[in-house]
Specification:
mainly beta; 11% helix; 5-stranded antiparallel beta sheet; two-stranded antiparallel sheet; flat
Length: 164
């Protein structure tokens, strides 16, 4: 939506008095429209939401690593604390082929080639507002030879509900 379209929408909804305040925040968007297809119909490296990612050899399935404190009861009132490192796979959300979307990037803010990968916590328990959530999501930019991409199987320890 451009600035003029935004102004018209504000006027139609009776919010035109907010235009001067909001106008500096207006940005163009690239909108994706979903269409359900079988995964084997999607070419390697093509934009897609869900399924299995097309990863190069240098990128392994993305995981989240956290240090968790556990308590073990030793006696009736006493317990010991132990810290352990827990690693678990993130859910694959989407891959965006930037060469497919660059024609819609009116402000040319994104690279014109490469892939953007999006991964998020399989438990969907992180909002990203807290610093401790920093390992619960990943966005990866990769710009290499698409011939090196291969459709990657889900990790065995990824919860079944996280498989899209």
């Amino acid at each position: 939506m451009n600035t003029e379209e935004f102004k018209i929408k504000l006027e139609k909804s009776g919010l035109a008095h907010f235009f001067d305040m909001l106008q500096p925040l207006v940005r163009n968007t690239v909108r994706l429209y979903q269409k359900k297809v079988e995964e084997d119909e999607i070419a390697i490296g093509q934009t897609k939401i869900g399924g299995r990612p097309d990863l190069p050899k240098e990128i392994t399935w993305v995981t989240e690593t956290n240090t968790v404190e556990t308590k073990k009861r030793k006696y009736l009132f006493f317990h010991t604390k132990k810290q352990e490192v827990v690693t678990k796979p993130l859910s694959f959300i989407a891959q965006i082929n930037l060469s497919e979307t660059s024609q819609y990037d009116a402000e040319k803010l994104l690279p014109e080639s490469g892939l953007l990968y999006f991964f998020y916590s399989a438990e969907q328990d992180s909002w990203g507002f807290d610093y401790r959530d920093k390992n619960s999501f990943k966005v990866i930019y990769w710009d290499g030879n698409f011939d090196e991409l291969q459709r990657t199987d889900f990790p065995k320890d990824l919860p079944e509900y996280a498989l899209l």
